[in-house]
Amino acid sequence: MNATTLPRLNLSTFPRHALLEGPTPIQPLSRLSARLGGASIYVKRDDLNGLGGGGNKLRKLEFLIGEALATGADTIITVGARQSNHARLTAAAAARMGLKCELVLTRTVPRFDSDYLENGNILLDALFDVRVHDLSGSANALQFAEDRASELRAQGRKVYVCPLGGSSAVGCLGYADCAAEILAQSTQAGLSFDRIVVPNGSGGMQAGLLAGFAALGVKTPVIAAYTVLGDAERARSITLDKANQTVRLINENLHVEADAISIDGEQLGPGYGIPTDGMREAVRLLASTEGLLLDPVYGGKAFAGLVKDVTSGKYAAGENILFIMTGGLPGLFAYRSEF
Ligand SMILES: Cc1ncc(COP(=O)(O)O)c(C=O)c1O
């Protein structure tokens, strides 16, 4: 395969609003790979997407904002945990578009210190000047969002409700497109990735990548995820479902098989947003060997899994592995006491 014979994804029928500056770089982690021995590790810098502090959710938001604008929305509401990166980036994208935005944030994570409650993403939400609804950990955020949308619609507003993590099938198209971007970049660099490693929260990033490679019709690298939200079984069924919804949006004859879903549950630890020793070590390791910053809730746990599986030999020596850096840097400030 070369640049001219490269299969392409045509997503031009889906409304989309540009929020990215272009392809994000792929960089080798030479020092870290030498330190661990075995596989060659690369990173794709989705943390460098610029708007609102950056991160993976901007890829989904290009399509979600596109859909919102196509439906004539003047207001966007989304849900998440108090330190949600998706909520922060939705707020930033709404500010950029001149849309009103409300965030329905739950206290799902049992952390009560002022850094967690007031710093990091929540500080940035306030700067984007959005309304935050502060709900208890047991509240049904999506139901609250739908009720609030009805209230606003009764006042004449046009409201678009965006699901957890932006992971509707339309949102996942952002990562289907990223699969095409990775294929183009790796082909141009003469590289072939055996494995792409990601954190799995709402499952949309993994699902979108699987859908994208299926739609491109090329041999799919293993898309290896570490779940950071639910147990592995639950994450697997949610991700398979989203991957199939997404690929069918692109081509209704395509299908993602269940055995394509690789999810490891070992890095979750006691639960979503609860730090583990592996996460703390992974954040320090990548910072001190490569000067790169992982977040404590998603990338830190997934990278801990990657380090473990490279050093144990589960990921074979000689493999080329691409880890997607998903952003979430503000989370480090919310978890200051962990470091
Ligand atoms: C920084 C970061 N990385 C990874 C993820 C996981 O992506 P997904 O929800 O698509 O599985 C999220 C989701 O919120 C995130 O904020």
UniProtKB/TrEMBL annotation:
Q: Which NCBIfam families match?
A: ACC_deam_rel
Q: Give the active-site positions.
A: S84 (nucleophile)
Family, similarity comment: Belongs to the ACC deaminase/D-cysteine desulfhydrase family.
Classification of source organism: Bacteria, Pseudomonadati, Pseudomonadota, Betaproteobacteria, Burkholderiales
Provide the Tryptophan synthase beta chain-like PALP domain boundaries.
19-327
* Record's keyword terms, sorted: Lyase, Pyridoxal phosphate
Give the originating organism.
Paraburkholderia humisilvae
Enzyme class label: lyase
Cofactors required: pyridoxal 5'-phosphate
By what name is this protein known? L-cysteate sulfo-lyase
Q: Where are the N6-(pyridoxal phosphate)lysine modifications? A: K57
